[in-house]
Design a protein that fits this description.
alpha+beta; 2 domains; 394 residues; disordered N terminus; Nucleoside Triphosphate Pyrophosphohydrolase; 13 strands; four-stranded mixed sheet
Length: 394
């Protein structure tokens, strides 16, 4: 593993402390290596190969060049003294201000999003092949999903307003999941809409942009529950992922033009933990929104990241997982144990900051070879949240 990072300069102890505490550090690079190479594309991430039809470049090694104007907004993940930029643009970072869930509001607009004809023509053939493949091997459900259209901050009551819109899953297949398909020698959809180094705003995006959910869940003694996706899921097979994941759908926002409280929506989203690993919502004692990103691999698809703390032990989770509705989606789950004595501290001193950084490194190393992008993103955001939380209590 260390040889993957051999061309980066290592940070000193003092630099490491500053970086972990403030997530800001400047690394000196060998001559000729641009800063953009500190990226997901510079690392060898294991991807499970399969024979399925696939029209998204899940590795997208050139992402830092394709989206070079987004590099300043890309999420940083520090691992073993090296700063790695992930192909995730931070759209809403709640790790610093740390607004409670009731400071988030959701409003569903009328109407359903449809990909415009000029873009449908680019992906039509790929869409047909992808749909045929999914129907052969799995049950295709063209359910009504939710897309994130806009994020606004209300200065009057210091809260976020998230405007959403309905979208059928097939529209997601036609756009975000066929981004890199090419018909003959023509440009792909990604090359057509993202040819200037940046993302368009959510409101002006021509893509379906289903609103994804990712939840890190911890046991009562700070065990992080990590799931490994099985062979029956459509995408990211065999990868290590957050404890629960999914997308918002019409049951989360059943009526239009109504202002839903974040508490109401998030309690519903916690169903992902129940369905996938069997954790009932009543056992969750605390939950928090870490932030929202736009994943560059899928053209800026929005992803909501959360953390949840349960009253369950590892043994409880083991029992409940066997009864989970969607257990078949998982190959297995594991629990990574963080130092409970350290995590129980109200305030981190300099030594604690270093210890915590090493704990996170140990966690990443444990899953790195098959780590999914959402998993690494969730860990990066949670790390920022914990360090800011321990600093605020000082």
């Amino acid at each position: 593993m260390d040889n993957l990072f051999s061309f980066f300069c290592k940070a000193s102890k003092n630099e490491l402390v500053r970086s972990i505490a403030g997530d800001t550090i400047s690394f000196l690079l060998p001559p000729g290596i641009p800063i953009s190479t500190i990226s997901w594309g510079a690392f060898k991430i294991y991807k499970l190969m399969n024979k399925d039809v696939n029209f998204v470049d899940w590795q997208l090694k050139e992402w830092s060049f394709i989206y070079h104007k987004e590099l300043d907004n890309a999420l940083n993940l520090q691992y073993k003294g090296t700063l790695m930029k992930l192909p995730q643009v931070i759209t809403l970072d709640n790790t610093q201000k740390q607004y409670e869930v009731n400071k988030f509001h959701f409003i569903q607009e009328k109407g359903s999003f449809v990909v415009e004809n000029q873009y449908r023509g680019i992906t039509e053939k790929a869409y047909s092949l992808l749909l045929e493949s999914l129907n052969k091997k799995r049950t295709f459900n063209n359910g009504l999903c939710i897309r994130l259209k806009k994020i606004e901050f209300d200065d009057l009551d210091s809260s976020y307003i998230l405007t959403t819109q309905a979208v059928r899953y097939e529209q997601y297949l036609r756009s975000n999941l066929t981004l890199d398909a090419k018909l003959n020698n023509s440009n792909s959809l990604r090359q057509t809409i993202h040819n200037n180094g940046t993302l368009e705003s959510l409101e002006h995006s021509p893509l379906a942009n289903n609103f994804g959910i990712n939840i890190l869940a911890f046991t009562a003694d700070y065990g992080l529950i990590v799931q490994q996706r099985g062979e029956k899921v459509a995408f990211r097979r065999g990868e290590y992922c957050p404890s629960g994941s999914g997308t918002l759908d019409d049951q989360d926002l059943p009526e239009n033009n109504i202002r839903y409280s974040g508490e109401q929506i998030v309690r519903g989203l916690l169903r992902e933990l129940t369905e996938e690993i069997g954790i009932d919502k009543e056992s969750i004692r605390k939950y928090f929104i870490l932030g929202i990103t736009r994943e560059l691999i899928r053209g800026g698809q929005p992803e909501l990241f959360m953390v949840a703390y349960t009253n369950h032990t590892e043994e409880d989770v083991e029992k409940e997982w066997k009864q989970a509705k969607d257990r078949h989606e998982l190959e297995k789950f594991s629990v990574f144990r963080f130092d409970k004595g350290l995590m129980d501290k109200n305030v981190f001193d300099e030594e604690d900051v270093i210890k915590f950084g090493l704990e996170v490194d140990r966690c990443i190393e444990n899953y790195f070879e098959k780590a999914s992008l959402p998993f690494l993103t969730a860990i990066a955001l949670w790390k920022k949240y914990i360090l800011e939380l321990k600093r605020k209590k000082a």
